[in-house]
Amino acid sequence: MHKWKGASGVCVNENNELLMVLQGKPEEVKKWTAPSGGVEEGETYDECCLREFNEETGNKAEIIEKVNVKKGRNENHQIDYEVHYFKVKVIGGTRKLQDPDQLIHAIEWKTKEELAILPLAFKEDQEFLLKMIT
To answer: Which positions fall inside the Nudix hydrolase domain (predicted)?
Structure first.
């Protein structure tokens, strides 16, 4: 059984909007998610979060706190997963599409109302992400 480890940066701005990315392979239906990705060899979850956030949004961020850990199994692909979610704030950079994997198609701030109806890549994250927006 393969184990996938990843991290995600959850960023809420001064307007109480969550930064989301529209992602998917060219042949897939595109869905929304918080910026995230897999831990590389020798990398901590914190380092992964900051790297992926920058790769997917163009923004540099700093971690405020760890806010969630999701563990489970994807039966379709026979993969166990563990994802660490960090609340982050933007401290620099310029928001732009620059994903080296070419999987990111849009970067947008979303309101609580929009988040409630967006097609999410990980539907199980919806309740948690809605709680992050006060």
So the answer is: 3-134
